[in-house]
Amino acid sequence: MTSTTEPTWFKSSFSSNDGPDCVEVAITPADTTVHVRDSKDKNGGQLAFRNASWTEFVTHLH
């Protein structure tokens, strides 16, 4: 039987708790997919990225 553990969502350490423009990120238990969602609409849509693609994207933000 396969476990369906929900990913743990988190915000950037640069985000404040009172800021309206935040995204949340979660990594699947298998560590292969990164999910991104709007922190104001947790039940809304999500974007999913391969781990390598997300890492490359974040690396180029700095």
Description:
The chain has one helix and four strands. The radius of gyration is 13 Å and the shape is globular. It starts with 8 loop residues before the first strand and ends with a helix. A four-stranded antiparallel sheet has the order 1-2-3-4. Helix content is 15%, strand content 29%. Strand 3 (33-38) and strand 4 (46-50) form a beta hairpin. The protein is α+β, with helices and mostly antiparallel strands and 62 residues long. The mean pLDDT is 83.
Task: Lay out the secondary structure.
Blueprint: E1 9-10, E2 23-27, E3 33-38, E4 46-50, H1 51-59
Antiparallel strand pairs: 1-2, 2-3, 3-4
The beta-strand count equals 4
What is the succession of H and E elements? Answer: EEEEH
* SS content category: alpha+beta
Beta percentage is 25-35%
Arrangement of strands in the largest sheet: 1-2-3-4
Anisotropy-based shape: globular
Number of helices: 1
Largest sheet: 4 strands, antiparallel
Whole-angstrom Rg: 13 Å
Roughly what percent helix? 10-25%
Low-confidence stretches: none
Distance from N terminus to C terminus (CA atoms, Å) equals 42 Å
- Give the rounded overall mean pLDDT: 83
Looking at this protein, list some descriptive labels.
single chain; about 60 residues; alpha+beta; about 15% helix
Q: Summed up, what is this model?
A:
It is built from one helix and four strands; from the N terminus they run ββββα. The protein is an alpha+beta fold and 62 residues long. It has a four-stranded antiparallel β-sheet with strand order 1-2-3-4.
